[in-house]
Amino acid sequence: MNIFEKCESNVRSYCRNFPDIFHRAKGSIIYSDSGKEYIDFFAGAGALNYGHNHDYIKQKVMSYLDADGIAHGLDMYTSAKEKFLAKFDEVVLSSRKLDYRVQFCGPTGTNAVEAALKLARKVKQRSGIFSFMGAYHGMTLGSLSISGNVGIRAGTIGTSNNVTFMPYPYGFMESFDTIQYIKSVLNDINSGIEKPAAIIFETVQAEGGVVVAPIEWMQRLKNLCDENDILLICDDIQVGCGRTGPFFSFERADIVPDMVVLSKSISGYGFPMSLLLIKPELDVWEPGEHNGTFRGNQLAFVGATAALEYRESCNFEQDVKAKELFLKNFLTQQILPISEKIAIRGIGMIWGIDMKNFGGSSLAKNITSRCFELGLIVERAGRNDTVIKILPPLIIDLVTLEKGCSIIKEAFNDCISK
């Protein structure tokens, strides 16, 4: 028994799928104690869009530490926060003509989701929330209440009170007008469902199996919310910060949600950080009404500022689009022909290979395990974990991206031949 099995809780998960000890990482490569190198198609579950130890971001963080910069500041005014807010406003908000207030929440995305739910209920004086089947929003109680997977809600009896799950345009619902259904529920006095304070959604259900919402669907959802005095909350935790191409994943639909949740890659370096963007008229918090000890992670502010500076210095969005085309072509030409039962879905730099009709979760698990043996870290997602989720750092070079994809193809051939 190793020290991890002896001392660490049974709740550990990723280490069970990737059973090696890692000590160093650079760019899109992770190095283990055994001397083996792994290509990273996992990127910290989306927290490492800029890769591991990005040189420019690292230099800014190290310079800040060398100068004895403040590391922890609650919500006090600091130079690190000032610089981040100025750069975020310049590069992200003002350039898109977006008018949002920035709320710094606790260290992870679920903390910002909790803040969004709490604020929406306070603003609208209604307790209900609509979420979607297949959704994933975090592991604290409020976030669990709006997440679709009943398995992860085990032991949280009563958390889904005042939450109604609506159909997402996926699976058998693809031929069903889900927006019209929501309208019918809201307009039917006998539906048994009261008007919610907010509807929270993901433009891409990442943990839900890489399900991409259609543009028209998102536009109709926004119109529905406006017509019915319901707030629209976009959870951009995993697919924001450039993962789909633009900084925000909802930009392709030309909509402006009332609130936006950001975390994971917003800090640029994997530091804990989460934000809630709020339209100014919704910022009705009283001072200290919602807070958290680690909402002032100064190193995250430094890393986030550096990441935004880096984005300005290169053709970041165009680069993501070029890699998107490569991934789409690879999956279409090399993986789909294996079987007509395989499905692929994706956008930008998040893609899924759905094996539910071709071997299901067992084959998907065998393939990702074989990928790990061959030097590639790639995870599964979706219902019953049947979807192989490709999520590399956005900065990955094409040679490494191609090598990682070739490992996936080799793993498919190995596992299917058996």
UniProtKB/TrEMBL annotation:
The entry's family comment says: Belongs to the class-III pyridoxal-phosphate-dependent aminotransferase family.
Enzyme Commission number(s) of this protein: 2.6.1.76
Q: State what protein this is by name.
A: Diaminobutyrate--2-oxoglutarate transaminase
> Which cofactors go with this protein?
pyridoxal 5'-phosphate
- Uppermost EC category: transferase
Top-level taxon of the source organism: Bacteria
Q: What is the lineage of its organism?
A: Bacteria, Bacillati, Cyanobacteriota, Cyanophyceae, Nostocales
Q: Name one Pfam family in it.
A: Aminotran_3
What's an example Gene Ontology biological process for this entry? ectoine biosynthetic process
Does ATP-binding appear among the keywords? no
